[in-house]
């Protein structure tokens, strides 16, 4: 297309029909153009040319926890660019990667001790699954090549990750012959935050644990690993479940020589009110995946951590190495900004406690709306669950009219705000969500 013709059309017009957006048709609703961003606000332009600002209630899909144009993160990138932006990680190493790995091991629950860097959260899950199969083969159990996961779970869009997502209610039921058939437990009993504790129906937990034990006993000869999102299932419905279920999974995995894999990609780095969600249960997995907030939303990067016992078994396997190696593994720019992001988490407890309290107050009025089934808050996660599927386009527009960017899905209108939001920002988010739901769904 000639440059003069392209310039005459708006960016949104040029985008439509050319670029796919996540889970959207090429000719779907027009996106909003981002013309800038600073602090917790996005500078946007609508299809009709209108310019406006909105508080980002989504932290750019849960990643931009320190906001936009953060001076500390910007400086970390500038300094690394002046040295080098990328080198292959095969046969080479560099200070940003080693420093970040040391930080992750220091922050992660013991006994996680080794780090594998990946391109994205989905890829870190792929690496974890491959590691579990290699581990079992090295341990003399090569028949163990399947995984046990939870209904309602979501672990990514790549092929291996898709196989351990909910097979019926998830987003990947269109690919039954592409993904490996896995084993699934019913979703654990729901938990509610009361006085800083997650409480649940203990009899329901007892029944769930019994069914879990029976399933594992029946299939133990084929299970390489158990993979779950600890405490909070994200894309599966922002569903909070009982910590005791994680304790039971830890016990069963240890009893049967199965690796326990926690997907902390969405829950890690304080989002649930704990540095890692596994801390709600007071246990540690054998393998843990992290991503999303790792770089503060600046660059794509994820990591898989495992115990020394797991790493030793991989070293003793026939290949002797973990069979994965991304081109951009441990990208120096991503590692440098991730390291700075983790340093900014100092003092997160007081910030997250304040945000959680403010979110609870800000969203409380929504409980009186006729369309609302439940309002729940865990850490810096606020959820309004409706009794019908949400009108995504209408809710998004109504929230933007109130100065807040949201991205609802299923029957949920929710927020995961940046940790640098002030009290007024949280109040604005709550009023926008409540007002939008009232306007669109009643």
UniProtKB/TrEMBL annotation:
GO function term, MF aspect, one: adenosylmethionine-8-amino-7-oxononanoate transaminase activity
Entry keyword set: Aminotransferase, Biotin biosynthesis, Cytoplasm, Pyridoxal phosphate, S-adenosyl-L-methionine, Transferase
Pathway assigned in UniProt: Cofactor biosynthesis; biotin biosynthesis; 7,8-diaminononanoate from 8-amino-7-oxononanoate (SAM route): step 1/1
Site (Participates in the substrate recognition with KAPA and in a stacking interaction with the adenine ring of SAM): 23
Superkingdom assignment: Bacteria
Keyword Nucleus: no
Reactions catalysed: (8S)-8-amino-7-oxononanoate + S-adenosyl-L-methionine = S-adenosyl-4-methylsulfanyl-2-oxobutanoate + (7R,8S)-7,8-diammoniononanoate
EC number: 2.6.1.62
Residue numbers of N6-(pyridoxal phosphate)lysine PTMs: 292
EC main group: transferase
Keyword Cytoplasm set for record: yes
Record GO biological process: biotin biosynthetic process
Main location: cytoplasm
Compartment list: Cytoplasm
Cofactor or coenzyme needed: pyridoxal 5'-phosphate
One Gene Ontology cellular component: cytoplasm
Purpose of the protein: Catalyzes the transfer of the alpha-amino group from S-adenosyl-L-methionine (SAM) to 7-keto-8-aminopelargonic acid (KAPA) to form 7,8-diaminopelargonic acid (DAPA). It is the only aminotransferase known to utilize SAM as an amino donor.
Family: Belongs to the class-III pyridoxal-phosphate-dependent aminotransferase family. BioA subfamily.
Record text on subunit structure and interactions: Homodimer.
Protein name: Adenosylmethionine-8-amino-7-oxononanoate aminotransferase
Gene: bioA
């Amino acid at each position: 297309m000639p440059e003069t013709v392209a310039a005459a059309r708006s960016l949104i017009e040029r985008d439509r029909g050319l670029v796919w957006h996540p889970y959207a048709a090429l000719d779907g609703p027009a996106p909003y153009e981002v013309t800038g961003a600073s602090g917790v606000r996005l500078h946007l332009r609508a299809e009709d040319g209108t310019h406006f600002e909105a508080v980002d209630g989504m932290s750019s899909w849960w990643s931009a926890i320190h906001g936009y144009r953060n001076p500390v993160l910007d400086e970390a990138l500038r300094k690394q660019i002046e040295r080098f932006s990328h080198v292959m990680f095969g046969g080479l190493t560099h200070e940003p990667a080693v420093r970040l790995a040391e930080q992750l091991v220091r922050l992660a629950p013991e006994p996680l001790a080794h780090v594998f860097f990946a391109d994205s959260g989905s890829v870190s899950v792929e690496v974890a699954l491959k590691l579990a199969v290699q581990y079992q083969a090295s341990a003399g159990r090569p028949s163990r090549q399947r995984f046990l996961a939870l209904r309602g779970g979501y672990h990514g869009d790549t092929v291996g990750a898709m196989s351990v997502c909910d097979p019926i209610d998830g987003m990947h039921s269109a690919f039954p012959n592409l993904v490996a058939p896995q084993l699934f437990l019913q979703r654990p009993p729901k938990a509610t935050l009361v006085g800083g504790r997650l409480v649940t129906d203990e009899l329901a937990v007892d029944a769930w644990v019994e069914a879990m034990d029976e399933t594992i006993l029946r299939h133990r000869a084929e299970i390489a690993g158990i993979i779950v999102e600890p405490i909070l299932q994200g894309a599966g419905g922002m569903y909070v479940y009982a910590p005791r279920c994680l304790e039971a999974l830890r016990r069963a995995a240890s009893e049967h020589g199965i690796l326990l894999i926690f997907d902390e990609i969405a829950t890690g780095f304080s989002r649930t009110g704990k540095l890692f969600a596994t801390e709600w249960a007071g246990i540690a997995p054998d393998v843990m995946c992290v991503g999303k907030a790792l770089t503060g939303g600046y660059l794509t990067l994820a990591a898989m951590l495992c115990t020394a016992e797991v790493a030793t078994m991989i070293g003793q396997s026939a290949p002797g190495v973990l069979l994965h190696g991304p081109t951009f593994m441990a990208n120096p720019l991503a590692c440098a900004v991730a390291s700075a992001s983790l340093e900014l988490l100092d003092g997160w407890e007081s910030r997250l406690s304040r945000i959680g309290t403010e979110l609870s107050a800000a969203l409380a009025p929504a409980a009186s709306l006729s369309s609302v089934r439940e309002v729940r808050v865990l850490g810096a996660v606020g959820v309004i669950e409706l009794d019908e599927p949400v009108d995504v386009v209408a809710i998004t527009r109504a929230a933007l009219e109130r100065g807040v960017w949201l991205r609802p899905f299923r029957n949920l209108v929710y927020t995961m705000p940046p940790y640098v939001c002030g009290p007024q920002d949280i109040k604005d988010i709550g009023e926008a969500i409540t007002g939008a739901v009232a306007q669109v769904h009643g």
